[in-house]
Amino acid sequence: MTHARRGQVRGRRILTGALGVAALAALWELYKLLGPAEGVVVGGITLLPRTSDLAMPHVWVMAARAFEPVTGASNAIPLWQAVLEGSLFTLGIAAVGWLAGVTVGLLLALLMQRFRLAESAVLPWIVLSQTVPLIALAPLVRRWGSQIQFGEFTWASWMSVALIASYLAFFPVAVGALRGLASPDANHVDLMHCYAVGWWKTLWRLRLPASIGYLLPALRLAAASAVIGTVVAEVSIGLRGGIGRLIVEYAGAAGGDPGKPWAPIFGSIAVGLVAAGFVALIGLFLRRFRRGEVAA
Amino acid sequence: MNNHPAQPDPALAVEVTGVSRVFTVRKGADVTALDNVSLTVAPGEFVSLIGPSGCGKSTLLRLIADLDTPTAGEIKVFGKAARQARIDQDYGIAFQQAGLLPWRTVAGNIELPLELHGTSRPVRRARAADLIALVGLSDFADKYPDQLSGGMQQRVAIARSLAESPSLLLMDEPFGALDEMTRERMQNELVRICAETRAAVVFVTHSIPEAVFLSDRVVVMSPRPGRIRDVLSVSLGDQAQRGENLREDESFFQGVSRVRELLHGEAPAGARGVETR
């Protein structure tokens, strides 16, 4: 009975999600049908886009284009396959960046939780770090990276991209984890004091479990940041093989092939969804730690 | 108290000597929470601290628990400094909020202190099962705190405080957040549990009937600065014999009115009922 109902609820949620996507496509087509061909321009500023096939291709044009070959060459693979490969490449780099960012973020949060002085010394810099524009950072990272070489190890371009992704990803984790680690009630902290246990045991038994509710949204945000960081850094650094490069490359073809640039855009959306889905999966395993607060 | 067999430890359970606690408030005058307080609790004795809010009764309990340090004076628990007693786990503690970890089951919460101090898993399991039976929650061992009522949560907290069989229990208004009916039932259970475990108890409350029903002695405190106004021996009989009908007993009512008189000042005994408010 409850099992059937749960299935029903899930079915309805999937249906709602699909309807949302369909509504977006319908809105696109509706505007394309009714909007003025030259768009709405007020005082030289375009407020609404043009509705020509070039500026706004039909939804089905975008879809159909994905199943045609990338180029006219006889050995060209289908467009969807090229985008899929690019997506996987980007996803891999984003995952490395996410992992590095989460690790650094957690370590910083632990440091700040442990030492009050570290919090007042480090937190402002963490906030400040996010105001540095990515575009300014990318060439620097690349230049520094190219000078790193010890033994067998040489710095590859993809590592620069992952580093920039981690630079964006660590921020929400550091801030979220710090809040989470500080979240236990005074009562619980007193109790641990009564049990005469040290900082590490308190961390493991109390602070970390209590922080899960704050950590999961931070991890999701970090995943989104890592994906965006990877795509943007691929473009700024000029790394081939990823979705960022495809977006730039295919945009050049928009003049004669309006459906083509949309494929990598959808690809990057898919990468973001997969990343968010992965974090949701982590949340599923940590369900126990997200139970409602004690209603005492 | 000769109601209880002598404990193996000959020392007093708690010995508070001339303790003061002054809180330094930022940019203002100091607040004296406790002023020259002395108090002893014998092993196996049940002592309640009662008084209006701000009289320092919770502060005193926190000092005994070594959650705070006195500005002056000395506190000994079983003959040791309070800090050493805490490190040796000589007491169990329960607060007004049950303070259960929401991600642990009832059994997991009770096992927490044992787990933290390295008790082996089978021993932990057995001890938790015993305690769960003691507080009458056997059907709820695998439930999470959010699935329990407030009274049940508080019972789990009491079971947790008993986990390491302490000879001293410190309780800070443990029933303060419960409704009156649950509260009386919990008091009956606490009396039974104390009779079984023979632990000394320091019990902070602001309920007069609760203090009289539970205690061997009631310590009446007055606020600003926190002082002990008087100590009243209640001694309503052996804890094992206390039950629901004690609440109807004449000696219970006498105890209640004596504590009330002490709390409200030195009202002459004959003038009861005609005092102007």
Structural summary, described in words:
The complex is a heterodimer of chains A (296) and B (277). Chain A is mainly alpha-helical. Chain A has two domains: 2-56; 79-290, MetI-like (MetI-like fold), CATH 1.10.3720. Chain A is built from ten helices and four strands, in the order H-E-E-H-H-H-H-E-E-H-H-H-H-H. Chain A has helices at residues 2-34, 59-66, 79-114, 116-129, 134-146, 157-181, 186-194, 199-237, 243-251, 262-285, and strands at 40-42, 45-48, 149-150, 153-154. In chain A, helix 3 crosses helix 10 (262-285) and helix 5 (134-146) packs across helix 8 (199-237). The longest helix of chain A is centred in the last third of the chain and has 39 residues, at 199-237. Chain A starts with a helix and ends in an 11-residue tail after the last helix. Chain B is globular, with a radius of gyration of 19 Å. Chain B has 277 residues and is of the alpha/beta class. In chain B, helix 3 (106-116) packs across helix 4 (121-134), helix 3 (106-116) packs parallel to helix 5 (150-161) and helix 7 (208-214) packs across helix 8. Chain B folds into two domains: 14-90 and 166-266, P-loop containing nucleotide triphosphate hydrolases (Rossmann fold, 3-Layer(aba) Sandwich), CATH 3.40.50; 100-165, no CATH class. Chain B is built from eight helices and ten strands. The A-B interface holds A 185, 187-188, 190-191, 193-197, 201, 205-206, 209, 212, 288-289, 291-296 and B 65-67, 86-87, 89, 91, 93, 95, 97-103, 112-113, 115-117, 144-146, 150, 153-154, 177.
